[in-house]
Design goal:
The chain is α/β, with parallel strands linked by helices. The protein is built from eleven helices and nine strands. The strands form two sheets. Strands 5-6-7-4-8-9 form a six-stranded mixed sheet, sandwiched between helices. A three-stranded parallel sheet has the order 1-2-3, covered by helices on one side. Strand 5 and strand 6 form a beta hairpin. Helix 1 runs parallel beside helix 2, helix 3 runs parallel beside helix 7 and helix 7 packs across helix 10.
Length: about 240
């Protein structure tokens, strides 16, 4: 096994190298930045003794697993969902490879990919996607999914953290709200990478097929023009507009 944790734009080349030397590749998110690279990796994987795994750790969050089971029990329902991820970053972020869209895929890819994967895994395929704000430090939009209407918000600006988090000198806020019920994804978040590696070493794990939907969605988000919110903006976006 070769574990790959490098600038996102290098993941594709490093995964290819791992397969070339006969190893299994375990790649941090995102597996690739551009969807067409997945087709090439699939072809290489089919001719190799190794397998490609990717780290989609939120699928292993205990509360998310419970949610998956609960949603499966009500297949005809359509939900109203808000998703927010705010994580404080200093100016270094924008000067590093993470702030370079060509190397990281930008905010939606670099910090948002796991959350988009989570939404698609829980609520199904994309029917419509809108982007309300797209800047290097803050993005927001709306999704119509098979089983949910979603408002999402991503930020690396400390000013977007809720006051309750700032008072405690906290640095991140992760929140999923489904039909008004708030689900805190911050608890047990730090142990999930370990669980992913355990799953892979036990013969399980996510590969190209599991990674594809969120990578395709984020690519479309990155290349979408901003559009009017028409009342569908995430509540945190209104607060950000007043800053």
């Amino acid at each position: 096994y070769v574990s790959i944790c490098s600038p996102n734009s290098l993941h594709d080349a490093h995964v290819r190298l791992a397969l070339r030397v006969g190893a299994h590749a375990i790649c941090e998110k995102p597996l690739v930045i551009n969807p067409w690279n997945l087709d090439q990796l699939e072809e290489i994987e089919s001719e190799s003794a190794g397998r490609i795994y990717t780290v989609l750790q939120l699928r292993l969050h205990p509360r998310v697993r419970e949610l998956k089971a609960e949603l499966s029990a009500s297949p005809g329902s359509k939900y109203s969902v808000d998703l927010a991820y705010v994580t404080r970053r200093g100016s270094w972020y924008h000067h590093s490879w993470k702030g370079d869209e060509q190397r990281s895929g930008g905010l939606a890819m670099n910090i948002g990919i796991h959350f988009f994967d989570l939404l698609l895994w829980l609520f199904g395929r994309v029917e419509r996607s809108l982007v309300h704000v797209s800047t290097p430090g803050r993005m927001a939009g709306a999704l119509e999914l098979e089983r949910a209407r979603v408002r999402w918000f991503l930020s690396v600006d400390a000013a977007d953290l809720p006051e309750s988090i700032r008072r405690k000198a906290g640095h991140s806020f992760r929140c999923l709200t489904i039909d008004g019920e708030e689900i805190d994804l911050s608890a047990k978040f730090s142990d999930l990478h370990t669980e992913v590696y355990r799953e892979i070493l036990a013969g399980y794990g996510c590969g190209i097929a599991e990674a594809r939907p969120s990578i395709e969605l984020v690519y479309n988000v990155r290349n979408s023009r901003e559009t009017h919110t028409n009342g569908s903006a995430h509540p945190l976006l209104a607060g950000a507009a007043r800053l």
